[in-house]
Write a structure and sequence with these properties.
5-stranded parallel sheet, alpha/beta, about 425 residues, binds flavin-adenine dinucleotide, globular, 7-stranded mixed sheet
Length: about 425
């Protein structure tokens, strides 16, 4: 039986980052995954969905020739294959051994691995780290039907429906609403909580809902889907407030639950629970390997930005105004709008704002939220400020003119004159 220093189960962003961290420390490293390297991020998440969003943007903005759905879907899946191959060769270069198969049991220092077409075998290691990700939650009231999909099913749709209901107004639901609407699908988005993106600053969800409504996406918030029935020609979806929606397909995007890991093993990434973001998964994996090696591991999870790549984009980092007040931290909040930004006007993307939350006493930036053009890139400047405890001055004079970042700079509240 092969014996390693560390055996990592899962080769998504967390497993791959753990393997990088382990091989850098010269540990004999094995990675076991039941699919090619890349995980949810590469095969059915960040990478292919962003490719679809880019194709959708080409349709919205009238790029010629505009990609049709089949072209967009093929491109998204090809990108997944491309990035998976890149991850596989990086893993090979690092010297880690890769085993394609499912970890079907683990105890003590052993893991049993079952490849698809071969008998199972055991691997053994001094340390075992699980990076097995999360699985989509499927609400119990949904019937078994080929008309009901999760994100992976949506990515692989052979053709577009005429009407779709999206259950859940979180990041995944909002990104797919943006994609389907740009491809001309009549799109209904239903969120049980009072506003879209309920886990972040309320202003962001409200602004996004307004922008979606202007694009023709029908958004219902503060109401739950209570019943879904399949008939001969489609689905009949009934919400708690009595609204009846007829649709061809339903995309369930109500969240993802960590894959449970028994046996008291160390866990990182989405499987560890709290946050489901690729950079968070990587950082938690680095910290797990450092801890295994007995090193101090400062894990700065709070300064990792969270983005929704819908149109318009939404990005946040650190504390929201509500979070800060809930923790009893006195804050100063600044806000600026893209309608006053010359670059935004030039590209015709003037919806949205930037908001910066700073500590009232010290002036340090605690968090930021941006809805609007370039949000997912500009947020990095706020993340640097949050991570390093910088004040508003750090955001002044660093953005070119005219640029989207100027709105972030304008929002940063001055501590003193
Ligand atoms: C539609 C969608 C869009 C997303 N977009 C973004 C985005 O834009 N930005 C962002 O930061 N995050 C995004 N995410 C979240 C991101 O994909 C995850 O946070 C990230 O992939 C978590 O990495 P991980 O390594 O913890 O888990 P995963 O990427 O899920 O990897 C876990 C791997 O372990 C394998 N595995 C599980 N059990 C076993 C077993 N028993 N044996 C062997 N292998 C096993 C799985 O097959 C999988 O390959 C998105 C997610 C979805 C669903």
């Amino acid at each position: 039986m092969e014996k390693f220093d560390i055996l990592i189960v899962g080769a998504g962003p967390a497993g791959l980052a753990a393997a990088r961290a382990a091989t850098r420390r010269k540990l004999r490293t094995a990675v076991v995954s039941r699919e090619a390297p890349g995980g949810t991020c590469v095969h059915r998440g960040c990478v292919p969905v962003k490719s679809l969003l880019a194709s959708a943007a080409a349709r919205r903005t009238g790029v010629v020739p505009a990609p049709d759905w089949q072209t967009a879907r093929t491109r998204a899946l090809e990108m997944a294959v491309h990035f998976s191959r890149g991850a596989a060769s990086e893993l090979a270069r690092s010297g880690a051994a890769f085993f394609l198969g499912e970890a079907v049991g683990a105890a003590g220092d052993r893991v049993r691995v079952k490849p698809v077409d071969a008998p199972s075998f055991e691997l053994s290691a001094r340390h075992i780290l699980f990076a097995v990700g999360a699985q989509p939650v499927r609400p119990g009231f949904l019937p078994e039907s080929s008309r009901i999909l999760d994100a992976e099913g949506a990515l692989r749709l052979p053709s577009l429906p005429r009407r779709i209901v999206i259950l859940g107004g979180g990041a995944v639901g909002c990104e797919f609403a943006s994609v389907f609407s740009d491809f001309g699908v009549e799109t209904f988005l239903v969120e049980r909580e009072a506003h879209l993106l309920p886990e972040i600053d309320r202003d962001c969800g409200v602004t996004l809902a307004g922008a979606f409504a202007r694009r023709g996406i029908r958004v219902a918030t503060g109401t739950a889907v209570e019943e879904v029935r399949e008939g001969a020609d489609g689905l009949r979806v009934v919400t708690a407030d009595g609204c009846v929606i007829e649709a061809d397909l339903l995309l369930s995007a109500v969240g993802r639950r960590p894959v449970p890991v028994d046996g008291g093993f160390r866990v990182c990434g989405d499987a560890a629970g709290s946050v489901q973001l690729a950079p968070w998964a990587e950082a938690s994996a680095e910290a797990a390997v450092a801890a295994i090696c007995g090193e101090d591991s400062a894990f700065e999870g709070d300064a990792i930005p969270a983005c929704v790549f819908s149109h318009p984009e939404v990005a946040t980092v650190g504390l929201s105004e509500t979070d800060a007040r809930a923790r009893g931290i006195p804050v100063r909040v600044g806000k600026a709008y893209f309608r006053a930004n010359a670059r935004a006007a030039a590209v015709g993307e003037t919806v949205g704002f930037a908001k910066v939350v700073a500590d009232y006493v010290t002036g340090r930036i605690l968090g930021a939220a941006i809805v609007g053009p370039g949000a997912s890139d500009v947020i990095a400047a706020a993340a640097i400020a949050v991570r390093n405890g910088l004040g508003a001055d750090a955001l002044k004079g660093v953005f070119p003119h005219p640029s989207f970042g100027e709105t972030l700079s304008a929002a940063a509240p001055q501590h003193s004159l």
